Amino acid sequence: MTEKEELRDVFRLSPDWLSVQEVLEAVSSPTCGAVSLFIGTTREDLVDGRKVIGLEYEAYEPMVQSEFRKLCDDIRARWPSVKHVCVYHRLGWVGVGQASVIMAISSPHRLDGQQAIQHAVTQLKATIPIWKKEVYDTQDSSWKQNVECSWSLHRKPTAPSENT
């Protein structure tokens, strides 16, 4: 009988290029048959006739780890088989085509990991205090809201519950 494997969760903010290999290594496990991976990249987009040339990210770093811990607890409550969670997120300038975020989750079977990674990406955008500013080819910029955030102006209103 082998010892029970400890759960491992890593969240790293960095101004440097992100390594997919490091993220994969952080979640590798001999007890897991699946690693689900998400890579979010900066896309070239046209906004009001201006071309996006990059994003600038800022974070409230003292709160990031605490919110990440809550996210991992939530993931494990929903998918108890999830072993390891790793998220690397860029800060500062991220040019078109570069990775802004790399996330991986390991689990014994693929379905739990796939569902958990989808949930984690959505919750990361909704709850982790990281903000992005689009920078355009005209040299102007604008801060963007994630539609997943409860305070977002772009969020679709939900129907009132029957209890209200």
From TrEMBL:
Gene3D superfamilies: Molybdopterin biosynthesis MoaE subunit
Biological processes, Gene Ontology terms: Mo-molybdopterin cofactor biosynthetic process
Catalytic reaction equation(s): 2 [molybdopterin-synthase sulfur-carrier protein]-C-terminal-Gly-aminoethanethioate + cyclic pyranopterin phosphate + H2O = molybdopterin + 2 [molybdopterin-synthase sulfur-carrier protein]-C-terminal Gly-Gly + 2 H(+)
Coiled coil: none
Pathway info: Cofactor biosynthesis; molybdopterin biosynthesis
Compartments (UniProt record): Cytoplasm, Cytosol
EC category: transferase
A Pfam family that the UniProt record links to this protein: MoaE
EC number: 2.8.1.12
Gene Ontology terms for molecular function: molybdopterin synthase activity
Major localization listed first in the record, in broad terms: cytoplasm
InterPro entries tied to this protein: MoaE_sf, MOCS2B_euk, Mopterin_biosynth_MoaE
Annotated Gene Ontology cellular component terms: molybdopterin synthase complex
Complex and partners: Heterotetramer; composed of 2 small (MOCS2A) and 2 large (MOCS2B) subunits.
Note, other: This protein is produced by a bicistronic gene which also produces the large subunit (MOCS2A).
Functional description taken from the UniProt entry: Catalytic subunit of the molybdopterin synthase complex, a complex that catalyzes the conversion of precursor Z into molybdopterin. Acts by mediating the incorporation of 2 sulfur atoms from thiocarboxylated MOCS2A into precursor Z to generate a dithiolene group.
Protein name (record): Molybdopterin synthase catalytic subunit
Source species taxonomy: Eukaryota, Metazoa, Chordata, Craniata, Vertebrata
The encoding gene: MOCS2
